[in-house]
Amino acid sequence: MFTSLSGNVEDYDKITFGDNSKGKVEGLGKIEISSEYSISNVLLVDSLNFNLLSVGQLCDLGFQCLFKPNEVIVSKIDGGEEVFKGFRHNNLYLIDFNLKKANLQACLFSKNSMGWLWHRRLAHVGMSTLKKVMKKDLVRGLKDITFEKDKLCSACQAGKQVASTHPSKTFIYTWVYFLEDKTEVAHVFSKFAKRAQNKFNTSIVKIRSDNGREFDNTNIEEYCDEVGIKHEFSATYTPQQNGVVERKNRTLITLARSMLDEYGTSKKFWAEAINTACYASNQLYPHRLLDKTPYELLNGRKPNISYFWVFGCKCYIYKKRQHLGKFQRRCDIRFLLGYSSKSKAYRVFNEATGLVEETYDVEFDESNGSHGAHVDIVDIDEEPLVETMKNMSIGDIKPKEDED
C-alpha cells in the first residue's frame, strides 16, 4: 500500500480518537492512489479503523472545503479550481478518490485495511483465527498486519462462514481428492496410502468412513485386507460418529462459497475453490494447545504465505517467446483459481481458451472487491475442468518457500 514508509516519527505524538483513546503513530510515508495522483505525509496509526483525511491540514496546504447538506467540495484557494468532491453518509463526509486527479498531503491511513485484504487472500478464514496466527507468529510472510473485525465481509455473509472446531488432543491436516466417479475411491485411496507411508515412514492402521456406497464396495475392502488396514463404518444416518470429517467438510464448503462470491466466480469452479480453501486452512488454523499450524506440525517449519492472492482476482500473464508486433498486447488476461500441486506456480483460468493453466510469470489485480470483477461464465466446457480436477491433490501442493 505504501510506496515509501519511514519510521522516523519522533516529531509526532499519539493520535487521539473521538472516545479519548489514543493510537500510536508507527510510520510516515506516501501512498500512490493511482497512476494519476498520490497522498504524501501519510501517518500509519495503530488501532485506527478508518482512513481519515484532515480538513485542517488541507486548509494549511492551500485548499478550501465547502460543506453542503449532502456533499463537500474541495478546491484550490487560488483560482478556485475544484480538486475533488465527497458525499455525506449519516454524519460523515466520504471521499471517492476515483473521481478526480489530486495531489493531497494530509491523511491517516488505517492498518486494518491490509488486514481485510489478507482475510480475502487467505480464503476468508475468520479474523479471530488470523489475529491469533499473527499474534503468535505462526506463519512467515505476514508482518505488522492488524486483524480486527470492524465491519462485515459481504462474501463471508453470503457464504455463511462457520468456524471449525477440533479436539485438542489431535491436529487435523487435510488432503482433498476429486473423483469423476465413485468407483475411483479404491484407486485414489491406495495412492494416498502409499504416499502417506513414504512421507511419514509409518503405516495406516485404521480408517473410518460413512456408509456411502463409494466406501462400501469390494475393491476398497480387498485393498484394506491386503495391506492390513481396519475399515470402520459410522452408523447409518449418524454423521456425529464421523464428526471430524463432517466439520471439515462444512468448513471447506463455507470458505469456498465465500471465495466464489468474492468476485462472482462461476460455481463451475467449486473444486478449485475447495482445493484452495483446504490449502489455506492447513496453514492457518492453529492447534489449541501447541500454538502451531497443521502445516508446521506436519513439516517441522512455519508456512510461508507471502505469495497468497485473492481467489478469483484478475491477473495478467505476460507473453514470452512470442513474436509480437509493436502494437500487439504484451499480456493475456486470466483470473486466479489457486496454486499448483506440481510446481511453484499459480493456477489461472484462460477465458479465451476455456482452459486452466499453470504459470508463475503473472501479475495480479486485487483492486475490485466483492462482486466487482468478471461476470459469470455460462459457456464453459466442463470436460477440461473435470480432467484438471482429477489431477488435483491439495496435500501435494509444493509451498513457495523463500530463503530466509
UniProtKB/TrEMBL annotation:
<dbReference type="GO" id="GO:0008233">
    <property type="term" value="F:peptidase activity"/>
</dbReference>
<dbReference type="InterPro" id="IPR036397">
    <property type="entry name" value="RNaseH_sf"/>
</dbReference>
<keyword id="KW-0645">Protease</keyword>
<keyword id="KW-0378">Hydrolase</keyword>
<dbReference type="GO" id="GO:0003676">
    <property type="term" value="F:nucleic acid binding"/>
</dbReference>
<dbReference type="GO" id="GO:0006508">
    <property type="term" value="P:proteolysis"/>
</dbReference>
<feature type="domain" description="Integrase catalytic">
    <location>
        <begin position="131"/>
        <end position="302"/>
    </location>
</feature>
<dbReference type="InterPro" id="IPR001584">
    <property type="entry name" value="Integrase_cat-core"/>
</dbReference>
<dbReference type="GO" id="GO:0015074">
    <property type="term" value="P:DNA integration"/>
</dbReference>
<dbReference type="Pfam" id="PF25597">
    <property type="entry name" value="SH3_retrovirus"/>
</dbReference>
<dbReference type="InterPro" id="IPR039537">
    <property type="entry name" value="Retrotran_Ty1/copia-like"/>
</dbReference>
<dbReference type="Pfam" id="PF22936">
    <property type="entry name" value="Pol_BBD"/>
</dbReference>
<dbReference type="InterPro" id="IPR057670">
    <property type="entry name" value="SH3_retrovirus"/>
</dbReference>
<dbReference type="InterPro" id="IPR025724">
    <property type="entry name" value="GAG-pre-integrase_dom"/>
</dbReference>
<protein>
    <recommendedName>
        <fullName>Integrase catalytic domain-containing protein</fullName>
    </recommendedName>
</protein>
<dbReference type="Pfam" id="PF13976">
    <property type="entry name" value="gag_pre-integrs"/>
</dbReference>
<dbReference type="InterPro" id="IPR012337">
    <property type="entry name" value="RNaseH-like_sf"/>
</dbReference>
<dbReference type="InterPro" id="IPR054722">
    <property type="entry name" value="PolX-like_BBD"/>
</dbReference>
